[in-house]
Amino acid sequence: MIEDEPTELDERGTRCPHPIIELGKFARAQKGRGVRVVLLADDAAATSDVPAWCRLTGSTLVSVSELADGSGTRYEVQL
């Protein structure tokens, strides 16, 4: 089932490995593929950690963009 609106995980203010741990917890709680999630992170390590996590889990990194207010980066992932 594909959701219309992705769930948002706001991990700004946390440091590696916390954003990826929370992304993993969310992914394990889902009952199937196709679910979208948006991870907001301001930790510099997330720029390499999120794509690596997607490769390792078979998820798709749909988009990456800087937040308009400069408070971090938005990663949209399809599980």
Short description:
Helices cover 30% and strands 29% of the residues. The radius of gyration is 12 Å and the shape is globular. By secondary structure, the chain is of the alpha+beta class.
Describe this protein's structure.
The radius of gyration is 12 Å and the shape is globular. Helices cover 30% and strands 29% of the residues. It has 2 helices and 4 strands. The mean pLDDT is 94. It has a 4-stranded mixed sheet with strand order 1-2-4-3, covered by helices on one side. It has 79 residues and is α+β, with helices and mostly antiparallel strands. The longest helix has 12 residues.
Which structural category do the helix and sheet elements fall into? alpha+beta
Spatial gap, N to C terminus: 11 Å
Biggest pleated-sheet summary: 4 strands, mixed
* Fraction of residues in H or I helices: 25-40%
Number of E-type strands: 4
Order of secondary-structure elements: EHEHEE
Mean pLDDT: 94
Strand order of the largest sheet: 1-2-4-3
Rounded radius of gyration (Å): 12 Å
Q: Quote the beta fraction.
A: 25-35%
> What global shape is seen?
globular
User: Number of helical segments?
Assistant: 2
**Uncertain regions: pLDDT < 50 for 5+ in a row?**
none
